Each structure stands twice: as structure tokens, then as C-alpha cells.
Amino acid sequence: MARIILLLLLSGIVQTSFAQKLPNSSKEALGWLEKISIAPRRHNFIGTFIYYADGHMETSRIAHIVDQNGEREKIEVLDGLPRIVFRNNDEMKCYLPESKRIVTEKRWLRKFFPDLLPQSYGSLNDNYYVSKGERERVTGYECQVILLEPRDNLRYGHKFWVDVDTGLVLKAAVVDADHVIEQFAFAQLDVGDITNTELLEPNQSIVASEWHTTNLMASVLKDNELEWQVRDPPAGFKKIIEMKRNIAGKSTPINHIALSDGLATVSIFIEPISEKISSPVPGFYSSRGAINIYVRILADNKITIVGEVPLETVKKIGDSVVKQATNFSIKSLNH
Length: 335
Description:
Distance between the termini: 40 Å
Subcellular location: Periplasm
Shape: globular
Number of strands: 22
GO biological process, one term: regulation of polysaccharide biosynthetic process
Order of helices and strands: HHEEEEEEHEEEEEHEEEEEEEEEHEE
CATH architecture of the largest domain: Clam
GO cellular component, one term: outer membrane-bounded periplasmic space
Helix content: 10-25%
Number of helices: 5
Strand content: over 45%
Largest sheet: 12 strands, mixed
Structural class: mainly beta
Pfam family, one: MucB_RseB
Family: Belongs to the RseB family.
CATH class of the largest domain: Mainly Beta
């Protein structure tokens, strides 16, 4: 709480550079990014990984298969309320057994460990200094440590432990200076052919039950088609998509703009303030791990910024959102 209050007091002061300019990343270090990016689309694996942040620990089981039809994956959370995500390429189904609900949507921006880098990673050197660390063992595999040090304080640093044979990330940490904000790590992993494809199918108890399905659809828009725009995004962040989206818990579609620096993503959600509910309270809201949230009110709309970046950055992006006149038309409907 004290950290939030301090940032509110200092919110008008945003430093954007370090005193020392970092050099260009070496070709060898950048080559490891290519291995990391393509590895999940080349290898089959089954394993158990642990997520840790803010004193919270969560264990998940994953099965991942690549074949002529693309990628299929099942991630089952083993702690707390049961959750199971089935992914077929970019189509996702999330099963929530406690409420007998299935939520379907596209994997627009979500990253799932160990698939953490986009296929287009060329801009990372502009925003991060990429370097090699030592070699270390993770769950029995020899790994090369790859460090991504931010070139300013608008983003977090990252540390990847990469299997030297496959390029799969076996451990990943988001760091702020020397402080680990969140971490993923395999506790057990088998890489190779997976003959039992039933591992990626819902079990019979799920199939036999009656579930309520919610389909979250999105309408992708042309560039600058929304009447809302980000006038002055922080250095290195570029708009990657704008759309109208259905969000769980919302009765009507809301505006969504997403920015990225090649690794970190920031989403901007804009919705009219309803007279039926109390007005939202502007300010910062905490979340677990690397995700930070900032809310502001503009022209009777609630603007929510959610990003895996420091609080100063979500505020800078949120305060740059402006409303402008535009002709609205939907380009295409995607499910």
C-alpha cells in the first residue's frame, strides 16, 4: 500500500532513461531469441510447472503437441479452483468445473509458459539489451541463461533459462533491478514424441456433464478506426491491434487497444460508464506478479489500462488516451 501511495504522489514524474547507455546486443545473444521463439512450434512436451509471485505458488500440468494441423495444448491448474485450458492453435476453451462454464475465445495477446516470445521479435534489441549468462541446470536439462535488460525504466527485465538442445524456455523470471517479480519454472519435463493424444482431450466426466458455454467474440478494426487513440505512447511501444471485444462479465462489447514493445503487452479497455452501477474510482489497482492496472475517467467513459509493465508506464499510456472523431466501421468478425 505504501508503494502505491508513493507512486500516486510522484505520478507526474516519470524518468525514461538510465544514466548509462547500453550497447547493442550481440548477434549470438539475439540468435538465442530465435531459438526461444520457434521452439514451442517444433517440439512436443509434457510437464509440470510452477508459477510463483507475491508469496503465491501455483502448480499446473501441461501437454503440448505439434503436428501437421498445428499446435494443440492442454494446461490444467492443479491448485485452488480447478481450471483447464484447451488450445487448438489460437482457439481456446477454458473449462471452469466449479461453475460448469466453458469460455471460448481467441488467443489474441495471451502468452502461456513456455511460449513467451512472439514470432516477430526483431524490435527487442531496440528496447532491451540481450546478453548471455552462465549455463545452469533446470529439472535435469542443461540451460543457457539469456538476460533481457531494459534500456529504460518503462519496462521490466527478463531472465530465461533455455534448454540448449531444443530452445524451450524451462524457467523464466520477470525482474525489476535485482527483485524477482514473478517466476515460472518446470519441476518435471519430458520432451519428445507424444503418442497418447488423449492427453489433450477433455475427460469423460467433463464431456458427460451439462456446461454453459460463453463465446467471447471480437471484431478487428482498421488502424485508427476507433474514436479512441493513444496520442503519445512511451518510447518503444507500438499499437498492434484495435478491436471491439466481448469480455466476460460485460453485457456489451467494449473497445480494446493493445500496445507492445516486442515482449511486454499493454491492453487499454474503454467502456461507457453505466448509470446502473456506481462510478469507478480512478487510480492504481494492484494485481499479482508483473501485471499492473490503472483506471481513469474521460468523457463519461471508464478507461482501464492493464499491462505487464511498471505502474509509471501504465499511467503514462492511460493518460495518453484521447477521444477523437472518426467514422466507425467493422472490418471483420473473428471468433
